[in-house]
User: Fold this.
Amino acid sequence: MIIDKYLTNQSPLFRKLKSWQWWVLVVVNIFFLIAGQAAAVLLGRYYYDQGGNSKWLATLVQTAAFPILYIPLFLLPASQEVSSSSRYPSFVTLALIYLVLGAILAGDNMLYSVGLLYLSASTYSLICASQLAFNAVFSYFINSQKFTALILNSVVILSLSAALIAVNEGSEGPSKVSRWKYILGFISTVGASAIYSLLLSLMQLSFQKVLKKQSFGVVLDMQIYTSFVATCICIVGLFASGEWRTLSGEMQGFGKGKVSYVMVIVWTAVSWQVCSVGVVGLIYVVSSLFSNVISTSSLAITPVVSVIVFHDKVNGVKVIAMLMAIWGFASYIYQNYLDDYRSRKSRYDGETHNDP
Assistant:
């Protein structure tokens, strides 16, 4: 079987696992990713609904719990993958990469916070689906990814889905925010999706051209240090903007009380890092391609959950937009499945041919 041969190409840790044990690890990491992302978005919306209003705090919690990422670093052995280059990048080069990508991450998270402030959770998540379209475009120009018919179909469908949300007169933000704030939230979320896709492509380019490997430790270092830089920037922004002075009053006036306020902040931060553990775990256990597919496809689950939890208004246009988004996701995932299958089959056939 191809899956059995694929297991032999993994870390020595996974060579000792049976097929069902490997699948258990995959399912656990998928759960971490999907549950963490959905919980973080819903808790972020709940924070605003109950009286929270600090955009810098909402941005800070997206990366502040990054020390949690040290847990899988200590629990799982480092990959023994050898770099394709005998010369490892200098400290200055690595620092510059982490600083630039961390700064982009901080700005991207701020746009996401603004979008979630002025949009309902379901509308926000549907617009975030446009990330796939941007991802395909940036991957084509930066990472030389092929632009197939299925990818083109995904880009067009997801773009139309986001456009439907934009022109839908029945769409409104939480607590009936003004039309202009709704537009600001829409633009911020689309911009955040585009920047995040650019960030993913730049990270992939860094792995390919500078770091020249993508082992578990290297990927985890990228997550930790870019999150550290983003966290530092958000802390500076929180104090420079003066929003820190309002946090005490915000806690006092929080709809469900002070304890609930603290718990929402803490668990939002934890949820984002649980999601990151799932992302890195899937990269380590399976591949970066598979991790990216699951990460983006999980965006299709959040709108459904938010409608159930927050009773977001759903009209015909939003339902059509949701169905189109699922269609776009399916096209994108199927194309990535074909690419991954062909890659593994080619590797398997090559190794079989070389066996005596």
Observations:
- The CA atoms of residues 3 and 19 lie 8 Å apart.
- The longest helix spans residues 316-354.
- Confidence is low (pLDDT under 50) at residues 1-10.
- The chain is about 75% helix and 0% strand.
